[in-house]
Structures are given as C-alpha cells and as structure tokens.
Amino acid sequence: MHFAIIGQGLAGSALAIQTAKRGHEITCFDLNVANSSSRVAIGLVNPLVLKNKTLFDPSQVYFNYFDRFFKGISKLFGRDFLSRNLIREVLQEKQEIHNWNSLQNNSKFDSCIGPIENLNIPTIKGIGMGIIKNSCRLDIKSYLKTIREWLKENHHLRDERVDSIRLIGENILVNDEKYDGLLLAEGVEAYWTEKIFGKLDLSPTKGEGIIIKSRKSNFDFPIHRNIFLLPEKKNIYTVGSTFNRNFSLQSPSAEGKESLIKDLSKLFLDDYEVIDHWAGIRPTTKNRKICFGWHSKYKNIGFLNGLGTRGVLTSPFYSSHLLSIHSK
Ligand SMILES: Cc1cc2nc3c(=O)[nH]c(=O)nc-3n(C[C@H](O)[C@H](O)[C@H](O)COP(=O)(O)OP(=O)(O)OC[C@H]3O[C@@H](n4cnc5c(N)ncnc54)[C@H](O)[C@@H]3O)c2cc1C
Fold first, then answer.
1. Measured in angstroms, how far is the CA atom of residue 117 from the centroid of ligand 1?
2. Is any atom of ligand 1 closer than 6 Å to the C-beta of 10?
3. What is the CATH number of domain 2-44+54-77+138-202+286-324?
4. How far apart are CA 49 and CA 54, in angstroms?
5. Which of 127, 140, 193, 249 has the most CB atoms less than 10 A away?
6. Residue to mutate, 87, 136, 211, 282, ligand 1, most ligand atoms under 8 Å from C-beta
7. Which pTM value belongs to this model?
C-alpha cells in the first residue's frame, strides 16, 4: 500500500518507520518549520514523574517498545541517537535526602530511583544528587533530520502544507494525488484529523526554554530541580522548559524567560548570559490521554495525536500499536 503521512514530528517519524517496516510505500508531508513541538523539544526520557515522585509507566510497556524501537533505529542508521547520561535530581534539604532514600528502599521504584551521589559541582546549589535510572536523552534534531533524509532517499518527502484531502469512494486524494492509506500525525494543528475524526480533546501547552553560556560550569549530565539544565557544548546549557496552559502568543515571552531565570537562580550559581530563547506548543490533551485510531468508514485512515509532554518515550509504542490494530 502507498500511505500518505501528514507530519514528520515524533509521531509521524515513528509511524513512517513502522509503516515502512511492514513493507508499505510512504509519502510524508511536513511544513518543516523550526518551532514545531518536536523540533524544539528537549528530548528527555524519564521514568519518574518528578513533580510528585510517581512512576510514569508502572507496567514498563512504553520502555520495552522504546528500547526495541531505538535499537532498530541505531541498526538502520548506524548511529545511536540516545545519550545515556542519567538525569540527576538536585537535593537541597536533609528531608529531601531522606525522602529519596525511602523511595530507593521501596522495590516499586527499583527501575528508576538510583543512589544519591555527592554533589561536587561548585556551581550547583545542593547537598546531593539523586540518580534517575533508565533516563536518557534523544538527540531529537539529528533523529528527525536523519528520518527526513531516509524518507527522501527511500520514500517521498514533501515540504508542503496539505491543504486538500478528498475522500471519494475508496480513494484518498491528498493534495490531489491518490493514496491507498492516510496517517495523520499533525500535532497541535490537527486540522485534518479533526475534520475527518471529529474534535479531539486537545488542550495545548506552551513550553519555553533558554540557552545560556556559563563562565566556568562543566558537567555532562542533565540536572533537574524544577527545571532542567542540560549540557550542550562546552559552557553551553539548555534551560527548560516552562509548562503553560494559558497563553495568547506562540512566540517566546518575557514572562517565560523570567520564570526560567527565577528557577535557575535557585539552582545555578555560575555567571551566565542568555544567548537564545525559544518556544513551542505541545499537543497535550485535557485528560492527558494519547489519542489514536482508525476511521470506522474509511478503514485505511488513521491518526496519532496528543503525545503531550512525553512524545519521545511514547511514540514508539503508539505508532506500533496503531499499525498492529489496522484491519487490512
Ligand atoms: C518546549 C518543549 C519541550 C519538550 N520536551 C520534551 C522532552 O524532553 N521529552 C519528550 O518526550 N517530549 C517533550 N516535548 C513534547 C514533545 O515535543 C511532543 O510530545 C511531540 O513533539 C509531539 O509530536 P507530534 O509529532 O505529535 O507533533 P509535532 O512535533 O507538532 O509534529 C507535527 C508535524 O505535522 C506537520 N503538519 C501539521 N499540519 C500539517 C499540514 N496540514 N500539512 C503538512 N504538515 C503538517 C507540522 O509541520 C509538524 O512538523 C516537549 C515539547 C515542547 C514544546
């Protein structure tokens, strides 16, 4: 079958890989804009919900698919897009050390709570760092770029807006070309998904981040306390992200930057300058559930959306699951 896929973010890319694996031909349409959710995402995978210290996926299903999927990706492209430098949660109070140790002694958290390390980074304020096991970071930009090149070489990639979909009998016409199947992975825009499947439960959230150039800091793993501090190059760190449901502008805002700097001041003691500031909109849903499925009448039209804050981890599972429940 020849599938049209709309969107080459995390959802569309995973769908493209899984669709090709099943022997289908693909034409992927994407606007190729720099500020799409996937292109500005930080790329972290974290088994722990840091805010309330619960397990994100007690069943480990997402992680099993994630590991398998990215093993396949590194085999296919001959490189690993994952950095396995584990996230460290900065602990600043004795009580936090005590709480972390209690979690570590609870077998439920065996897969994610590691030991406490001494904090010997002079520019980070704290008394210890709790290691988060099984965390990692996807180099999203390189991953998406590589999938893009692969689509160009092995399938078809169109940097164009899909502004026409017509369904005539069994025929699916996308921008006036005929396809056997259609997969919608439009992220927050969801124009065609909502037109074909009805209103989704989307409640988008804005995320902002800054890039800072520090004077003397030097560490090579992600650090978290309210916000993430992520090493990029020597002295260069990404700080992010904010999470905001009420926003009017999609562009970076003064309030977003201020909130990041405020959080950073409670954690980071080095001098720095802000060298970049960006924003993106996450396709989050009201009930936090990922939405996907096939059309009841048009059997070869499916969609995947609502990946929310954890698209890196969840896209391998949902893309695979969606294709496995396709009836044809
Ligand atoms: C600031 C920020 C930080 C984040 N950090 C993380 C993180 O650390 N870890 C994590 O797992 N997740 C993170 N996320 C969330 C993650 O980015 C999302 O879950 C994911 O990007 C959603 O992917 P998607 O493919 O559904 O949507 P998108 O990335 O938005 O992709 C949809 C694509 O569809 C294309 N498109 C839409 N309509 C059309 C059309 N009509 N014609 C052609 N193309 C079209 C768009 O151009 C776009 O490229 C973050 C998000 C933000 C904003």
1. 34
2. yes
3. 3.50.50.60
4. 5
5. 193
6. 282
7. 0.97
- 3-state SS class at 136: strand
CB of residue 300 inside a 6 A radius of ligand 1: no
65: number of Cβ within 10 Å: 20
Domain boundaries, the chain: 2-44+54-77+138-202+286-324, 87-134, 205-282
Answer yes or no: is the C-beta of 31 below 6 A from any ligand 1 atom: yes
Quick check: CB of 47 below 6 Å from ligand 1? no
Cα–Cα dist 304/288, whole Å: 14
Longest dimension (CA), the chain: 67
